[in-house]
Amino acid sequence: MLSAAFLVVGCGKSDLADNPFLKEWDTPFGTIPFDEIKVEHYMPAFEEGMRVHNKEIDAIIKNKEVANFENTIAAIDFSGELLAKVGGVFFNMTAANTNEEIQALEEKIGPILAKHGDEITMNGKLFERVKLVWDNKDKENLNQEQQMLLEKTYKRFVRSGALLDKTKQDKLKQVNGELTTLESKFISNLLKETKSYELVIDKEEDLKGLPDWLVEQGKATAKDKNKEGKWVYTLDSPSVFPFLEFADSRELREKIFNAKNNRCNNGGDTDNKANIEKISQLRAEKAELLGYNTFADYVLEERMLKTPKEVYSLLEGLLAYSIPAAKKDVVELEKLLVKDHKGATLEAWDWSYYANKIKKAKYDFDAELTRPYFEINNVRQGCFDVITKLYGLTFTERKDIKTYADDMQVFECKNEKDEHVGILYWDPFTRASKQGGAWCNGYREQYKQGDKAVTPIITVCFNYAKSPSGRTTVTAEEASTIFHEMGHAIHGLLSNCTYISTSGTTVPRDFVELPSQILEHWCSKPEVLKMFAKNEKGETIPQELLTKMASVSQFDVAYGMTERYAAAYLDMEYHILTAKEKTGDITAFEKKAMDKIGLINQIPPRYRSTYFSHVFGGGYAVGYYAYVWSEVLDADAFDAFLETGDIFDKATADRFKNEILSKGSTNYADQMYKNFRGKDPSIDAVLKNSGMKK
User: Fold this and answer.
1) Given a cut of 70, is residue 117 above it in pLDDT?
2) pLDDT for the residue 7
């Protein structure tokens, strides 16, 4: 592999003359000119970005003035603007609009960027200046944000190996490079397996139980895949999960469930088991090099929950409620199963199907009757309206801003003073070039540098199946996902910070899900549903249906809770290994971990190891518990609104905005929460919301 330095030297000026990344973007608000960017532009731009970044770092080192906050800490934070510009576009495209060329480039550039970062954080002369500022911090009159940036910068250098001797630094660089390659490979394998699977149905009787919209979806997918006259279902969420819920054919449910549940666990080039074993081992080695017992100890040092013991205590405390509740559900579900299949035992591919039948029989609730009221554009606008009522942000579509896909939209966000706040890209539909799931990310962060106020550019991406009719509807649960990702978006859009590293969502992993998960609460409230839940005739969702939705809200919650907690537990088990311990066979390791918590056969962890992209490719290693911890935070935080008697209470919304959403990481997460709530969070609220505790 060519070194980064060699690549930069080999990049001539002629290669850069027409490169769009090397030009000032003459676009509205500096948005991305997607129509001008080609795959061949990325590598030269990355190389130039690293060259310029190195030059900026060199200038900091050679500064003859005594190191202080402005000429060292702030200067480091504001450096690398061009590199961030290129990376902001490239890594969003690897998720939202990828292809084989981009995937190959991702595997190539990852180790180069890792090495570039290591060369900076392990630069002895640069660290001397950082340490001098740290040692003399009491002599500078730093404000709260500056104190936090100084602490984050110093710790980032130390936690990246600045205090290690050269031998250990070289080893750490090697480990970081290998990890980057393996994590990229993990994601690439998962995308290939997810997108390659097709359940092809050629007999109409096998469609029994599927609602009309799902039949039409399968027909449209078949047409797209040149299989006209048949029906095709895939492992994309809008396809596989409804199929499991509605298909009468137990055989086909089992088939598609096992395909989903065994992704990258089938041998061959896309099998991820060897990748997991290597990633786990390398992370343990990294922790040992840096002086930590395990990778979990290393990661949690910077979190709200500081130790593995605290995380396990959280998970085990909640599992003690959810697993017994799930076992009771199994008994009830199996009673229905044996009526259809005498002597059968309930399996994971039966759960959604029979839970849906119980909802109809016991609660007189049919989720399909709600779907016409959740048209995707209405849901989006309803979410926008909630955000406007809470925080004063407005969203106006901008058709003059370029996108990378035809079915996207772009919105300009303004505050209550009608001032520009940022840009939001809205990317709702699934496509072959897009990884699965839903996410929010940034192309550009908010910050202030002198007279320059940089506004954020945020994207929210989903994987909803676009209806052939042109009117795409979603379930109530899928609607809550829109609110979730928009919660992340407003965390970035409402940021009001000076420095890049303290801005927006640069908070601890177990705090970052609070803004997203709390916004989900509004999606299910009757007064909010009446704002946007309307059918094709414009009729508002009837009160009778709202009453039924409320009555069924605590049914079958044990499944979702247990699968989330189990996944978080599995994540921890991989990362409490020391460098001397091995995972061994991945399938056996996973089973042993799940047996520890008494996980029942009918509920697999939400993500099995071989497709656990959050942990082995998405930056959530020792972090999936964050969703669980944030359930505690968001339930407790939403109680602050409920206690006022008004879910749109302005004083509470202003406090949440001013103490959390706008603050980035300018203060410690636990202190920001206390500033908002006035107390520490409690798990009682989440247990009460689920009906597991009165």
Assistant:
1) yes
2) 31
468 shares its domain with 408: yes
pLDDT band at 692; cut points 50, 70, 90 = low
Taking residue 466's Cβ as centre, other Cβ atoms within 10 Å add up to: 16
Residue 685, domain member (yes or no): no
Same domain, 250 and 277: no
Q: What does the alpha-carbon distance between residue 65 and residue 87 come to, in Å, rounded to a whole number? A: 32
What residue type is assigned to position 482 of the chain? I
pLDDT of 330-369, one tens digit each? Answer: 999 999 999 999 999 999 999 999 999 999 999 999 888 8
Cβ pair 69, 140 in contact under 8 A: yes
Q: Are strands 447-449 and 394-397 parallel, antiparallel or unpaired?
A: unpaired
Is residue 409 located within the same domain as residue 533? yes
In terms of domains, do 546 and 556 share one? no
Question: How many domains would you assign to the chain?
Answer: 4
pLDDT band at residue 1 under the 50/70/90 scheme: very low
Residue 489 lies in a domain: yes
C-alpha pair distances (Å), 83 with each of 44, 46, 108, 127, 351: 11, 6, 16, 21, 48
Query: 229 and 89 share a domain?
Result: no
Pairing state between β 439-444 and 447-449: unpaired
Q: Do 9 and 116 fall into the same domain? A: yes
Angle at which helices 250-261 and 237-246 cross, to 10°:
150
Helix, strand, or coil (residue 205): helix
Catalytic positions are: 485
pTM for this one? 0.91
Q: Which structure tokens are listed for 413?
A: 């966000």
| pLDDT, tens digit (0-9, with 9 covering 90-100), for 407-463 | 999 999 999 999 999 999 999 999 989 998 999 999 999 999 988 999 999 999 999
195 alpha carbon, distance to own chain's centre: 20
Q: Based on the domain organization, do 408 and 478 belong to the same domain?
A: yes
**Region 154-163 average pLDDT:** 97
Q: Could you list the residue range(s) of the whole structural domain that residue 425 is in?
A: 371-551
SS3 string, 514-551, reads: HHHHHHHHHHCCHHHHHHHCECCCCCECCHHHHHHHHH
Distance CA(497)–CA(77), nearest Å, equals 13
Residues 481 and 509 in one domain: yes
